Amino acid sequence: MQIKTNNINTIRTIKTLDGHTEGEPLRIVISGYPEIKGASMLEKRQYVSDNFDQYRQFLMYEPRGHADMYGAILTEPCSKDAMFGILFMHNEGYSSMCGHAIIASVSMLIETDTIAMPKPGQCIKIDTPAGLISAYAYHDEQQKLKVSFDNVPAFVEALAQTITVADIGKVNYDIAFGGAYYAFVDADELGISCSRNNTAQLIDFGRKIKLAIIARDTLNTHNSINHPEAKDLSFLYGVIFHSGDTISAEAHSKHVCIFADGELDRSPTGTGVSARAALLQAKEGLNLDQTIIESIVGGKMTVEIVQQCQYYDKSAVIPRVSGQAFITGIHEFVLTPDDIFKNGFLLR
Predict the structure, then answer these.
(1) Residue 306 belongs to a domain
(2) 78/90 same-domain check
(3) Using one digit for the tens of pLDDT, what is the confidence trace for 19-73?
(4) Catalytic pick among 78, 98, 194, 257
(5) What does pTM read for this prediction?
(6) Bridge partners of residue 170, in order along the sequence
(7) Does residue 24 sit in the same domain as residue 127?
(8) Would you give the end-to-end CA distance of the chain in angstroms?
């Protein structure tokens, strides 16, 4: 039977290109979004949040998405050197930077011939709310397309912090920035498994730890996050549990990132491995060189420190993160007038 679709009564149609980086999904908007205004990427992010948040919910929430969906909107660049701008969205709102989305967007734009494969050493500059990113694309020894990017300066915000969390107890953590702020918790020390059959506890603990840190900061008794350049970046984005119990023998460690509203990253988290590079350099003096971090599902990213620098009053590093992305589908999502869940819903 041939199904006819040209007579569907729609209010709006949004077309997307879907893929994943090391297991973590990305839904890139191709068409259907209204014009996004703003002189900077932070202004564009605020404009989208204030005016078009219903479309984020439409694409990220069920029944079109799910609680762990992630998306991106490509925009006109704000800086003269950038090829394009990118905004990141998830189940709670909008992020400042996302490594897996950088890798996936560059990879998918090349694979669809939207942009040309750069020459060796040539970079693709991308505007993000966290700053200008330089990305590189290359083929490895097996001729597989891989993408790396040099992140914004990553730095440590606070070391050896302790907080008591209801139903968990005493939690030791460090805070570092790699495009977003994360609290890093040693899962082995805490006694929590980072395996895929323990996702419920990881999400529960991650949410509780994040909310406890935010609540303490809100009381101004222990303010641990203050970005030196942009107040809009001064918030705790997620909690990353790290473990030495890896699936692969070549991996340095495993990351499980619980971010936004209890969203669990299937990849090692590009901004997270960036922040971890700064953390390892500060705590252990490690000048990382092609260090592999794996995810809860076995996806891998490599991270290396390509430069040490001073960022305002912070000793910082420039991390280079590499990974692989794959296209999974092309979609046309329609909004019909009588849909009882126009903006979707979330179930966990």
Answers:
(1) yes
(2) yes
(3) 999 999 999 999 999 999 999 999 999 999 999 999 999 999 999 999 999 999 9
(4) 98
(5) 0.95
(6) 164
(7) yes
(8) 36
